[in-house]
Amino acid sequence: MSLDVAALRARFPSLTSGIAHFDGPGGTQTPAEVGAAIAATLTGPLSNRGTSVASERNAEAAIAGFRSAMADLLGTAPEGIVHGRSATQLTYDLSRTLAKGWGPGDEVVVTELDHDCNVRPWVQAAANVGATVRWLRLDPATAELDLDALDEVVTERTRLVAVTGASNLLGTMPPVARIAARAHAVGALVHVDGVHLTAHSHIDVTALGADFFVCSPYKFFGPHCAALAADPALLETLHPDKLLPSTDAVPERFELGTLPYELLAGVDAHFPGEMRVLGPGTSHCPTAMQSLDIETVHFPGEMRGQWVVGPGGRGAAERVSGGRGR
After folding, report:
1. Strand ranges (DSSP E) for 216-314?
2. Domain harbouring 106, CATH code
3. Threshold 0.85, pTM exceeds
């Protein structure tokens, strides 16, 4: 399949700036259709959600579109999609909610491979209730987690395992399903930071074994916000702090205050454009991105003073290129 590069670039106004966009933490650039959807939603009739008038129905449509788009992307139910300002905010909120059921003698497992977004919230939540933090260590020679100690670290005392789907710095993709299987075998929950993985891989949250999965649409052409995916039945068992008059329905009980309807509409708008990048029959962008990742992995080896961290010859199917934003 040939890619019309000129047509693709024309959809991204920022590419006329002359800047080379290698700022991974800043996310991807945004296509015009996303900006148009945000502007149309924000300036069209809009109010708090409801069904009485067009402004209320527009808010409802933005929320429904966001949940449906993210559920399609992640292979989950729309009723289990929670909006957040960022992956960091969602993880902090969830850590405080889960920690209500923890105490001395309980353990939480984090890894040396993870972004601090998926470490510090759990470390602090555990400390606040007297729970113990245990670590899955990183082998610096291979850039892989040392899973020889997995059964020793994840035990019957473990309440939660937090692990990345792909390292934002090294690109390492740990065997999440294997780690999740061990966690579930001892009755623990699994929280997967998918911020870096989602832009580079087809996601099936259930196949990964993730009880909670977070990602950020601005990493794959969307606006600056985040989403958490979980089984609605699991969310029903959790009770975050919230205002008395706010709904107790799932997933709304996890979303504080009025939602940014315009950003939700932007998330919904970017998926059709993303699909058009690769043409009919393609559900997501990773295939094209992986071909670029392969070039990224091998090119530094041809430059003096540059090297690739990790096993030689590793391709994009097992590792993705890095970037540090959240």
Report:
1. 226-230
2. 3.40.640.10
3. yes
Using 50, 70 and 90 to split pLDDT, how confident is the model at 275? Answer: very low
Structure tokens at 298: 């091998």
**Could you tell me the residue range of the domain that residue 97 belongs to?**
87-215
| 19, 237, 288, 290, 308 from 295: Cα distances, Å | 21, 45, 11, 9, 12
- DSSP-based helix, strand, coil % in the chain, nearest 5: 45, 15, 45
- Residue found under tokens 């990742």: 293
Does residue 117 sit within a domain? yes
**Alpha carbon distance 228, 118 (integer Å):** 13
R_g (Cα) of the chain, nearest Å: 20
Q: pLDDT tens digits, residue range 226-265? A: 999 999 999 999 999 999 999 999 999 999 999 999 999 9
Residue 39 located in a structural domain: no
- In the structure encoding, which two tokens stand for residue 291, read together? 């071909």
Token duo for residue 304: 């003096």
Residue 80 within a domain: no
Residue bearing the bigger pLDDT, 108 or 141:
108
